[in-house]
Specification:
heterodimer, A: 239 residues, alpha/beta, Rossmann fold, four-stranded antiparallel beta sheet, 34% helix, B: 394 residues, GMP Synthetase, Chain A, domain 3, five-stranded parallel beta sheet, 12 helices
């Protein structure tokens, strides 16, 4: 297992947001985490990369505990985060954004070429400021920047958010291609249909708890997935 | 060695335990949200390891009977696509529901058993279980379809038509009950039909049989005999996979099994419509978690006898209390009785009292007929009623 989470609890102040969840990601997999607004997906990701100290539980990367490590050590564990809303450096050029993603990578200049080959759209805008790119291009840049760290695992936080459907489709196609690089993907999304279409497995999260786990193909037709994704209640349950 | 879901069937123990923990936590979250009984019992209970399951409440067959029909359902009926009525605790009715995902998973689990028995897409599988009494039959049909084998789902009523189908369609696997397999073997011997002329390669029996029975069937039908091992109320076909070494491996990616006081307890990890937490199966069992030559890592189940006095008559369950209830409607009400199950009927020996006894023969015969008719009407059961003295009962 590349990533193993056991009984993770975390939150903000005195408010517990993630209530003791467990999950795992095996090498080479694309694993989705689905859930509606406020389910605790981003909080979980923050804990995974060390931006939030877990209250309880374990996070293991390649069998080594990392839950007490600071965020900056995350990259040396070969885990990179593509945050929600891209968070690219708007006042820096595309090249500078990429180089900053590989600041600890001795081969970063060579890797820039690799990324540009992967995302030709970025090559066309290599000297353009990040802030002037379209939403889809910014997402490509955020993905490329993460790849500059030569990660074994990418954590993607809502990569399709705010993108036009066509652009989102393109981004998901790029995520699938990451498999060729041997990169494992943990994809946190609200777009259930698109995520399940490319994922091997998925978890469904609701109010800080995982309520479903299974093969993506099986979850695709699951009514509970629709319910969790749409954030509907259980008032109609027959009891 | 043939394995369908290598990832799950041969999963390293530590990974399997992580998967079970994840699924158990998700199950608890669903139960607390969707089933009132569990919500009341579980409260805010959370578990942090598989060992914590000992802190969770058990579900008993009595609970299922109390919750009949839909009390244990975790989803509204509009999401349930199939209902299987069954006979539960002490003959009370029981209903199990399945969502589309439940059915797909069931088919996949049965397919694991079929693949382990050598079934491929080139095979023809004939299912002769009498689906009226045996709901596992539909599991075998779905399993065979999952493997993409050709499946004959038509139920022949008589051994002659069954034999005709075996000769005409040339199935390579027959899924049937031990009784039916024995009858088929006898018919072949009686009619001097050469077993290889049937093209059967494997017979999959609906329940475990003794080594002697298995060997007799193998010798009589010239086939490999495999057995299914399941729990009626949870999943009959698809609960275990019998490997080449003859071990019943529990599909532990979907069922968390434990043995409490010698009784098998099962938690359904992925079931959507009717998930059960620590269901006490009333089946004696032992579990072994050891390395198997087949490579499967699921716990090895050794099933024992029923602990609730349940009998099996022509593959249908029968409880002694059901017999007492029927007798209570007759003149033999309140009398002690002894039950013996024969191949096709039940022998009920009733201890006579002075109130019941008569020295007029036709009156005793009338009493026997009355009781026989009562059993036929109420339970559809063929009985042989014997009136004995308490001294005979000895």
């Amino acid at each position: 297992m590349l990533l193993q989470v056991k009984n993770l609890r975390c939150g903000y102040g005195s408010l517990e947001v993630v209530h003791g969840i467990s999950l795992h990601v095996c090498p080479g997999e694309i694993v989705g985490l689905l859930g509606g607004n406020g389910a605790g997906k981003t909080t979980l990701l923050k804990a995974l990369v060390g931006l939030l100290r877990p209250w309880r539980g374990e996070i293991l990367v390649n069998g080594r505990p990392v839950h007490n490590q600071p965020a900056w050590r995350c990259v040396s564990n070969a885990v990179a985060l593509v945050p929600e809303g891209r968070q690219i450096f708007a006042d820096m050029t595309v090249r500078e954004n990429l180089l900053i993603g590989g600041y600890h990578n001795a081969y970063r200049r060579m890797d820039v070429e690799m990324v540009l080959e992967r995302f030709p759209r970025l090559a066309e805008r290599i000297h353009q400021l990040g802030g002037t790119l379209s939403g889809g291009e910014q997402q490509m840049l955020a993905l490329g920047r993460a790849l500059m760290a030569r990660p074994k695992m990418l954590l993607l936080d809502e990569p399709s958010m705010g993108l036009a459907p066509m652009m989102a489709k393109e981004v998901f196609a790029e995520i699938v291609k990451l498999k060729d690089l041997g990169v494992t993907v943990f994809l946190v999304e609200q777009n259930a249909a698109a995520t399940l279409a490319i994922a091997d497995r998925a978890y469904v999260m609701e109010t800080g708890e995982i309520i479903l786990e299974g093969e993506a193909a099986e979850l695709m037709h699951n009514a509970a997935v629709k319910r969790a994704y749409l954030g509907k209640g259980y008032k109609e349950i027959w009891e | 060695m043939k394995v369908l879901d290598r990832r799950y069937e041969m999963m390293p123990r530590d990974e399997l335990e992580q998967l079970q923990l994840e699924r158990l936590q998700a199950l608890l979250a669903r139960l607390k949200r969707n089933v009132r009984r569990y919500r009341e019992l579980l409260g805010d209970t959370r578990i942090e390891s598989l060992a914590d399951i000992a802190r969770l409440p058990c579900t008993t067959p009595e609970n299922l009977a109390e919750a009949f029909p839909y009390g244990m359902f975790a989803l509204p009926l509009r999401e349930v696509v199939r209902l299987h009525p069954a006979l539960g605790f002490r003959g009370t009715p029981l209903v199990t529901g399945y969502t589309r995902t439940d059915l797909a998973q069931w088919g996949r689990l049965v397919a694991r058993q079929l693949v382990a028995s050598g079934v491929t897409a080139n095979d023809v599988v004939q299912v002769c279980l009498g689906s009226g009494v045996y709901r596992g039959a539909s599991g075998y049909v779905m399993g065979a379809e999952t493997v993409e084998a050709s499946v004959i789902a038509e139920e022949p009523f008589h051994i002659d038509s069954q034999l005709a189908m075996l000769q005409s369609y040339r199935p390579t696997m027959l899924v049937t009950t031990p009784d039916n397999a024995r009858e088929l073997m006898k018919t072949l011997q009686h009619r001097r039909i050469d077993p290889p002329s049937l093209h059967l390669r494997t017979v999959l029996l609906s329940r475990p049989v003794s080594r002697e029975t298995r060997q007799a069937l193998e010798a009589g039908l010239l086939v490999a005999v495999r057995c299914n091992c399941g729990v009626d109320e949870i999943l009959d076909s698809g609960f275990c996979v019998e490997c080449d070494a003859g071990h019943f491996h529990v599909n532990e990616d979907q069922f968390l099994v434990e043995v409490q006081d010698g009784e098998l307890g099962v938690t359904t990890l992925l079931r959507e419509a009717v998930p059960l937490l620590r269901y006490r199966t009333r089946i004696a069992a032992t579990l072994r978690r050891e390395k198997c030559p087949c490579g499967r890592t699921g716990a090895i189940l050794e099933p024992g006898p029923r602990l609730d006095g349940r009998l099996r008559v022509r593959e249908s369950p029968l409880y002694e209390c059901q017999i007492a209830e029927v007798l209570a409607q007759t003149r033999a009400a309140g009398h002690r009785f002894h039950v013996e199950v024969a191949e096709r009927h039940v022998i009920i020996a009733i201890e006579m009292s002075s109130a019941l006894f008569s020295d007029v023969m036709w009156m005793l015969t009338d009493l026997q007929n009355e009781i026989q008719n009562e059993f036929k009407t109420r339970l559809g059961l063929d009985t042989d009623i014997r009136l004995i003295t308490p001294r005979d009962a000895g």
